[in-house]
């Protein structure tokens, strides 16, 4: 199910990032050590009353060298585009300023719900300071204190109340949703056009969840697919391309809603650092991944080129060793037919469930082949394994002491599971848990 998105806007220093960090908390990422993956503290998952949502701190999106006022306006535009609900934050110690009014002016243009949060109300005696803010025209102001953690519950109750009804979106779950990510000019839009070429049947254009996002649904080879959000990306053009952090937010949004992510690389320019970072996001999100090397027509190839390129990819994207690589040209459509079968396979593996008894046979065989290590005189014991979820396939291994399960042994088990069940195209996750 798609998570709702909440964006925080407001002029600098009202406390946006303080609130963001408080709501997001310290979440340790599973692939914290993945090289090339920078932690992005402007976009993260938060939770209130068992409802998970994605939170964006638009204050962290720097827009080139633009003057502050322009940046604030654009951040508000981004919030309007990306979010289901907007938290408009002001400073209760200051009263309404011209900068608040500038932000308000942009927010008046949207029909999306705006919750007005008056921050820095550090004690109840200050509560009467919120009344001035009614004149901003966003209804009841919510007093909060980021530093003291006050009022956040009431504010979040109001935010959650406005989350869109999701029942509609769950209807067609057989469709394979995929998105294309990659830095500008690798050929994402050309590839979308090529995929949606003559032989496709566009079933409909689903009005997306955000104003600009239009998902395209089509049928091919008897399967139904949805291409996510690329229209929105194309349309956004200027801000999207010139603002690294904004393009990250958009890519993360698209990834979030996908089953399969196509990581598009340009054969002509080869792999650069930015490609790795983008691929890291998809990996981290636990999505199925197909690596697409586009513009294959533009380079000279002999019978070794493909192999050599694939070796480069394996070296540069070590964390994506499960992802198939497809070489093609969006322009000439050469080898384009190899793409959809890879998307379908990755998607099937992403949703695959294995039988518990077979899984345990595989684990026991693995143990016999390579006994668990002894760490500081303590030996890891494995009792039982089970698959707890799909998308991505996630396994829990019950052990005597999870501390003894080291990365290398986990890696070994992952490889055994992959050999036995074939999870090509999807990450899998293994957690060690203490048998109680
Ligand atoms: P941002 O620029 O909107 O992201 O604001 P920050 O989160 O960086 O906060 C700006 C300053 O306001 C920092 O010095 C914070 O410590 C302070 N601040 C944030 N929340 C509160 C609050 O609830 N009460 C008080 N008194 N100060 C706060
Ligand atoms: P995007 O920014 O990733 O959406 O990239 P575009 O689809 O706009 O393509 C960027 C440029 O690369 C355009 O000039 C395209 O014509 C060109 N291009 C895209 N795909 C191919 C391809 O397969 N071969 C060649 N030679 N050029 C391509």
UniProtKB/TrEMBL annotation:
One GO term (biological process): ribosome biogenesis
Residue stretches in coiled coil: none
Gene3D superfamilies, sorted: 3.30.300.20, P-loop containing nucleotide triphosphate hydrolases (3.40.50.300)
SUPFAM superfamilies reported in the protein's UniProt record: P-loop containing nucleoside triphosphate hydrolases
Binding annotation for GTP 1: 10-17, 57-61, 119-122
Domain EngA-type G, first and last residues per copy: 4-167, 176-351
CDD domains in the record: EngA1, EngA2
Binding of GTP 2, residues: 182-189, 229-233, 294-297
Gene Ontology molecular function: any one: GTP binding
Keywords (A to Z) from UniProt: GTP-binding, Nucleotide-binding, Repeat, Ribosome biogenesis
PANTHER family named among the record's database cross-references: GTPASE DER
Role of this protein: GTPase that plays an essential role in the late steps of ribosome biogenesis.
Record-linked NCBIfam families: GTPase_EngA, small_GTP
Self-association and partners: Associates with the 50S ribosomal subunit.
Family as reported in the entry's similarity comment: Belongs to the TRAFAC class TrmE-Era-EngA-EngB-Septin-like GTPase superfamily. EngA (Der) GTPase family.
Protein name: GTPase Der
């Amino acid at each position: 199910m798609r998570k709702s998105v909440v964006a925080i806007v407001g002029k600098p220093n009202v406390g946006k990032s303080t609130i963001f960090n408080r709501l997001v908390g310290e979440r340790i990422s599973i692939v914290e050590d993945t090289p090339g993956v920078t932690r992005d503290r402007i976009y993260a998952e938060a939770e209130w009353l068992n409802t998970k949502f994605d939170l964006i701190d638009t204050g962290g999106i720097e827009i080139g060298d633009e003057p502050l006022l322009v940046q604030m306006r654009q951040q508000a535009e981004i919030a309007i585009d990306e979010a289901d609900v907007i938290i408009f934050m002001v400073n209760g110690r200051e009263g309404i300023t011209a900068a608040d009014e500038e932000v308000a002016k942009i927010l008046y243009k949207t029909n999306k719900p705006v919750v007005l949060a008056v921050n820095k109300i550090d004690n109840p005696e200050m509560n009467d300071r919120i009344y001035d803010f009614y004149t901003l025209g966003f209804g009841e102001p919510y007093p909060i204190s980021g530093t003291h953690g006050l009022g956040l519950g009431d504010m979040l109750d109001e935010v959650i109340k406005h989350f869109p009804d999701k029942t509609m979106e769950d209807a067609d779950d057989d469709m394979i949703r995929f998105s294309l990510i990659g830095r500008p000019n690798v050929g994402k839009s050309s590839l979308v056009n090529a995929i949606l070429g003559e032989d496709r049947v566009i079933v409909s254009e689903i009005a997306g969840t955000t104003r600009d996002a239009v998902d395209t649904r089509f049928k091919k080879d008897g399967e139904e697919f949805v291409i996510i959000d690329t229209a929105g990306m194309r349309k956004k053009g200027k801000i999207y391309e010139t603002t690294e952090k904004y393009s990250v937010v958009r890519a993360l949004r698209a990834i979030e809603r996908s089953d399969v992510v196509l990581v598009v690389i340009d054969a002509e320019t080869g792999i650069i650092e930015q490609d790795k970072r983008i691929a890291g996001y998809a990996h981290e999100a636990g999505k199925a991944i197909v690596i697409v090397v586009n513009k294959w027509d533009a380079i000279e190839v002999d019978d070794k080129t493909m192999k050599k390129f694939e070796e480069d990819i394996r070296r540069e994207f070590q964390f994506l060793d499960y992802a198939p690589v497809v070489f093609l040209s969006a322009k000439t459509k050469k080898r384009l037919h190899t793409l959809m079968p890879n998307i379908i396979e990755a998607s099937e593996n992403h949703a695959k469930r294995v039988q518990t008894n077979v899984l345990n046979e595989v684990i026991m065989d693995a143990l016999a082949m390579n006994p668990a290590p002894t760490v500081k005189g303590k030996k890891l014991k494995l009792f039982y394994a089970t698959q707890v979820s799909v998308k991505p396939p996630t396994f829990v291994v019950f052990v005597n002491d999870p501390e003894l399960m080291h990365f290398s042994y986990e890696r070994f088990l992952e490889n055994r599971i992959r050999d036995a069940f074939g999870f090509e195209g999807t990450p899998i996750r293994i957690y060690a848990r203490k048998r109680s």
